[in-house]
Amino acid sequence: MSMDQIYDIAVLALVAVTALLLGISTALKYYTEKMVAEGKTVPHQVVSAQEAADALYSEANKLLDFTGAQKKAWGTEQLQKQNPGLTKEVAAGLIQKSYDTAHASDNQETSDSEETTQPIGFLDNGDDSNGSDKA
User: Cα Rg for the chain, rounded, in angstroms?
Assistant: First the structure.
């Protein structure tokens, strides 16, 4: 196969995937507009408060340059905005649970890796690759 043929196949595959995704998007838009026109409710993804707390804590950990307390406060505020029915105490508890879970898994990984690692030694005279006594 020549480079032109590979390029043409790649472009055709890209066009086919784009057309498929555009068709799916159009069908979903039509479906939701039809549901709204008929007065029916459009189904939404249901996310539990704990899943939202885990996602918010992960986002705060990756994106924000805050201390731990500031990350928890930010996560609590965002969780309350997403779920207005939650009290501040419940939201703070969910964020704290996410924090504890994340740190427990971090500690678990570090303890496992410490058991399997070997200390690094330094070369002394006579430790070269050919076995001679000259360094």
Answer: 28
